[in-house]
């Protein structure tokens, strides 16, 4: 009978079983993580583009062993559902719009109490990273809810988009200006204008119908929401960048990663703000370049006329509210306040 010797058959079988076991082990340890976001995939803005950057880099740096699948456009969790969905493990990564949860994340909403302030998008991202590294209370605010911040996505520096020219503080008297959050209502009142609470999605029509005279916004968002179709004056009033989104993870997922993968996530989180900020800057430059043809006039606002009102008691009362929260949490607030002051 012609064939393999018995020892050869056993050897071949052993090799085959070994290859099968190796393949099974590789398959068992490979992971596909879920990223849940409210952003539409085709938005084409800095937020969506930088999210895809993170996903692509994660796959590359893990040599394709792990990957992230993005569930775009609120398909798994709407904007206000993301923190609970992440905490419950419905997703592994996600975008938390921090200002929507002022009582849930009071420390991480610090910047929202200090408008106007002098910092840019990248500077605010760096401050947030520093605060998380320096004051454990910032992170504990998240870990207590089974969440972990791995990156920071501040919004762009804001000015005012208006339906008529504003060249000095006096021109703002009586204007109806869209407000939200903590600092903007107090700031608008201190400027002698009238704060009006209107949702982002409704502001286009409000500007078009003269229900609003102005809205605080940056060039990229003004173009993205098409507000610059109905309001043709962009006022360079230095409101500063405001903090927008945490790039967060389910804490159990993060802790369950092997050390190598966790290190990659930490590196990407640290690099994320630069990738996002670079994309945002490119978008802003493109929007500004197109404004001339679109008939949008950019008007410089005297900085001193804004900074001179920061001492107004209404503005200071808002800032004091956050200071009290920080003090109660054991965070020394003086250095943070100094960073966010002109």
List keywords for this structure.
about 350 residues, alpha/beta, D-Maltodextrin-Binding Protein, domain 2, five-stranded mixed β-sheet, 13 helices, 11 strands, disordered N terminus
Mean pLDDT: 92
Strand coverage percent: 15-25%
In CATH terms, what is the architecture of the largest domain? 3-Layer(aba) Sandwich
CATH superfamily descriptor of the largest domain = Bacterial extracellular solute-binding protein, family 7
Biggest sheet record: 5 strands, mixed
Supply the number of helical segments.
13
Question: Helix coverage percent of residues?
Answer: 40-55%
The structure class reads alpha/beta
Distance N to C terminus? 93 Å
Looking at how many chains there are and whether they match, the oligomeric state comes to single chain
Q: Return Rg in Å.
A: 25 Å
Report on the architecture of this protein:
The structure is a single chain. 46% of the residues lie in helices and 17% in strands. The protein is of the alpha/beta class and 342 residues long. It has two domains: 31-155 and 243-285, 3-Layer(aba) Sandwich (D-Maltodextrin-Binding Protein, domain 2); 157-241 and 295-332 and 335-339, 3-Layer(aba) Sandwich (D-Maltodextrin-Binding Protein, domain 2), CATH 3.40.190. The strands form three sheets. Strands 2-1-3-10-4 form a five-stranded mixed beta sheet. Residues 1-28 have low confidence and may be disordered.
């Amino acid at each position: 009978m012609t064939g393999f010797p018995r020892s050869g058959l056993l050897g071949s079988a052993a090799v085959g079983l070994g290859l099968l076991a190796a393949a099974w082990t590789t398959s068992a340890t490979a992971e596909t993580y879920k990223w849940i976001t409210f952003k539409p995939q085709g938005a084409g803005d800095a937020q969506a583009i930088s999210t895809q950057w993170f996903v692509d880099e994660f796959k590359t740096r893990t040599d394709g062993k792990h990957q992230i699948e993005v569930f775009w456009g609120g398909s798994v969790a709407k904007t206000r559902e993301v923190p609970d969905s992440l905490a419950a493990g419905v997703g592994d990564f996600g975008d938390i719009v921090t200002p929507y949860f002022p009582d849930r994340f009071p420390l991480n909403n610090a910047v929202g109490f200090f408008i106007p302030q002098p910092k840019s998008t990248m500077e605010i991202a760096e401050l947030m990273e520093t605060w998380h590294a320096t004051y454990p209370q910032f992170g504990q605010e998240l870990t207590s809810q089974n969440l972990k911040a791995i990156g920071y996505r501040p919004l762009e520096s804001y000015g005012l988009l208006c339906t008529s020219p504003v060249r000095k503080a006096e021109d703002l008297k009586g204007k109806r200006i869209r407000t939200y959050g903590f600092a903007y209502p107090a700031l608008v009142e201190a400027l002698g204008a009238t704060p009006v609470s209107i949702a982002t999605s409704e502001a286009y029509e409000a500007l078009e119908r003269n229900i609003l005279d102005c809205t605080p916004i940056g060039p990229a968002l003004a173009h993205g929401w098409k507000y610059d179709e109905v309001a043709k004056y962009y006022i360079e009033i230095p409101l500063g960048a405001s903090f927008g989104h945490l790039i967060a993870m389910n804490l159990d997922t993060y802790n369950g990663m092997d050390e190598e993968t966790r290190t990659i996530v930490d590196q990407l989180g640290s690099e994320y703000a630069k990738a996002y900020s670079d994309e945002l800057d490119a978008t802003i430059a493109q929007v500004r370049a197109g404004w001339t043809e679109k008939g949008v006039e950019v008007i410089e606002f005297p900085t001193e006329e804004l900074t001179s009102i920061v001492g107004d008691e209404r503005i200071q009362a808002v800032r004091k509210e956050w200071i009290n929260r920080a003090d109660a949490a054991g965070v020394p607030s003086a250095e943070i306040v100094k960073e966010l002051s002109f």
